[in-house]
Amino acid sequence: MYAAVGGLPLVRQPFDGPSLSAAAPKTVPSSCQLLPLRIKARSFLRIACVAKPAASGGSGVEKEEAPREEKFGDVDSRQVRRSADWRAARAYKDSGVLFDGKIEAFNNGGLIIRFYSLTGFLPFPLLSPYHSCKDPSRAIQDVAKDLVGSTIYVKVTEAIEEEKKLIFSEKDASWSKYSSQIKVGDVFDGMVDSFEDYGAFVHLRFPDGNYNLTGLVHVTEVSWDLVQDVRDFLNEGDMVKVKIIHIDREKSRISLSIKQLEDDPLMETLDKVNFQDGELVSDRLNMSLTTNIEPLPGLESICKELLQEDGITEVRLGRQGLEKRVVSQDLQLWLSNAPAKDKHFTLLARAGRQVQEVYLTTTLDQDGIKKAVQRVLGRVP
């Protein structure tokens, strides 16, 4: 990164003072003896990295020669170099180009990464799951110890010269390399990593056998049963199958679902209970043909709003039943997996263990009914 021009020669300058006459003393008192004076001058040519549009096949960060600066002494020369490297770090951060950094050491919080004349920090939470998933039983300190001396691709996430703060992320680098290989609907084998109150983080295993990206299974996507605590259903290190249901490429986030890989038990039951009078009822749902169960609160107002939607000409409340387990405490409307047939479609209203059928007469298809229901739920408090 740096080229230093060697020391400049010291040129003898003419002496403008009066010449020594022959009468001048031939010796100089010892107290006034002249000592040789040595001066070293150094000139450094600083080369800085700046972010430019990447040329074909280029990295996106190109070298640009900065103006020449004259400095004297080793301390000043090091400062020139470090200032140039801080500019380079900001260029990497702004451009998003990956940097191949050498791991020099580690501490209790993360890895120490060499960046030219600087050192930066990579916190353990920003390390790719690739390393820890090789042997989940190993402590992160042992993993870090084995990484010392190797190089990894990282992204510069913070570069603040005034605070001497240089932070790297390998997770962000992995996102740049692998996010183009995923899409909504993909199914992956995953390893459960950690938990929050709102869900579980799961590492995704790619076809090469490595765990390169991490997504979140929200608490509502863990099971068709009502989940109060995700830890009641999953443990760290569990192997699960997950489906990608949303990708936020701007924020580098992946939303996953476990339950969407399983059929909703009630939807299976719904296909079985759409019977004519006198047919048997599935034992998975205790249906009642009487009115001894109170209608679900708020359902009548939703039905009135459904009639305001174009394409829906009639709405009737149907049979009621009790589920064997609680799916949601709040009132929810569920669409049947079966499309509308002969202008008839059935919704399910669910709250707690209660479930009730809602019959629609409509000219809409399944997608049109879904949009209509969404509009209605947006209007009804």
Give an account of the 3D structure.
This protein has seven helices and 20 strands. It is elongated and about 85 Å long. The relative contact order is 0.07. With 381 residues, the chain is of the alpha+beta class. It has a five-stranded antiparallel beta sheet. A five-stranded mixed β-barrel has the order 11-12-13-15-14. InterPro entries: Ribosomal_protein_S1, S1_domain. GO terms for molecular function: nucleic acid binding.
In short:
The chain has 381 residues and is of the alpha+beta class. The chain has helices at residues 74-95, 129-132, 140-147, 170-178, 265-273, 299-306, 366-379; strands at residues 3-5, 43-45, 47-51, 61-65, 69-70, 99-106, 110-115, 118-123, 151-160, 165-169, 187-196, 199-205, 211-218, 239-248, 253-257, 286-288, 312-322, 328-335, 344-352, 354-362.
Mean pLDDT: 76
Sum up the overall morphology in one term: elongated
| Category from helices, strands and their pairing | alpha+beta
Rg measurement, Å: 36 Å
Largest sheet data: 5 strands, antiparallel
Count of strand segments: 20
- Count of helical regions: 7
**SSE ordering:** EEEEEHEEEHHEEHEEEEEHEHEEEEH
Share in β-strands: 25-35%
